[in-house]
Design goal:
With 234 residues, this protein is α/β, with parallel strands linked by helices. It folds into two domains: 3-130, Rossmann fold (3-Layer(aba) Sandwich); 134-229, Orthogonal Bundle (Arc Repressor Mutant, subunit A), CATH 1.10.10.10. It has helices at 16-28, 39-49, 65-74, 92-100, 113-127, 161-172, 180-188, 196-211; strands at 8-12, 32-36, 53-57, 83-87, 105-108, 135-138, 141-144, 149-152, 155-157, 219-222, 226-229. Helix 2 packs parallel to helix 3. The longest helix is centred in the last third of the chain and has 16 residues, at 196-211. It binds calcium ion (CA). Residues 13-15, 57, 59-60 line the site of calcium ion. Calcium ion is lined by residues 13-15, 57, 59-60.
């Protein structure tokens, strides 16, 4: 690929170890990176380089990520750049504040490189509609929406219509946890009465089809909360 065509990612992070790790993983995945260690530098670089996406740490010296986000949204050259907030805080109120300040998505530390790049691709896809709308990817799982096909490590995965809709929803929101009730609303629709336990049945079918005998489970069960597409092991 022509290097100039690779998406440019501005990493705003003050922890050197994490910067090294992020740069390594993102460059391996075909992104170009530029790094800012604090908010002032982030605003300067964002205006100068106009990256395709900004990974913005919440906890920064001098100026918080939240404030950086607000200022980016006010800048004429920066207001349309997609932003993913990176936060160590998991509380719902903080997530809402982050999204209200203008971030397109958030990711909570610690996160896996697979989850991060899947989120980034989803945000980039939404920012540039029509470019690769029809193809969703999470790790080695590829979903072709137009062709109604799913492949994992090159093999065809055969899914029923409900499992297909479930997986599509997860792949559009990688890493996010959805309750059974939310999944019922989204996948089955508001008007249909289905027992929440039905969701478990379809998740089981989805896992069976997707994971084969040897592949890692990409569906995470979050106790008393629901399910997420996630490769994190915990
Ligand atoms: Ca930090």
């Amino acid at each position: 690929m022509n290097p100039a065509l690779k998406p440019l990612i501005l990493i705003v992070e003050d922890e050197a170890d994490l910067v090294t790790l992020l740069r390594y993983n993102l460059e391996k995945e075909g992104f170009r990176t530029v790094v800012a260690g604090d908010g002032e530098e982030a605003l300067l670089l964002a205006t100068e380089r106009v990256p395709n996406l900004i990974l913005l740490d919440w906890m920064l010296p001098l100026m918080s990520g939240l404030e950086v986000c607000r200022q980016l949204r006010r800048g004429a050259k920066t207001r349309d750049i997609p932003i993913i907030m990176v936060t160590a805080r998991g509380e719902e109120a903080d997530r809402v504040r982050g999204l209200n300040s203008g971030a397109d998505d958030y990711i909570t530390k610690p996160f896996s490189p697979t989850e991060l790049t899947a989120r980034m691709r989803a945000v980039l896809r939404r920012a540039a509609p029509g470019t690769s709308d029809e193809l969703l990817q999470f790790g080695d799982v590829v979903m072709d929406l137009a062709g109604h096909r799913v492949r994992r490590q090159g093999r065809d995965v055969h899914l029923g219509p409900t499992e297909f809709r479930l997986l599509r929803h997860f792949m559009q929101h990688p890493g996010r946890v959805f309750s059974r009730e939310q999944l019922l609303d989204i996948v089955w629709g508001h008007d249909v009465y289905v027992e929440p336990r039905t969701v478990d049945v379809h998740i089981r079918r989805l896992r069976k089809a997707l994971n084969g005998d040897t592949e890692a489970d990409v569906i995470r069960t979050v106790r008393s909360a629901g399910y997420a597409l996630d490769s994190r092991v915990d």
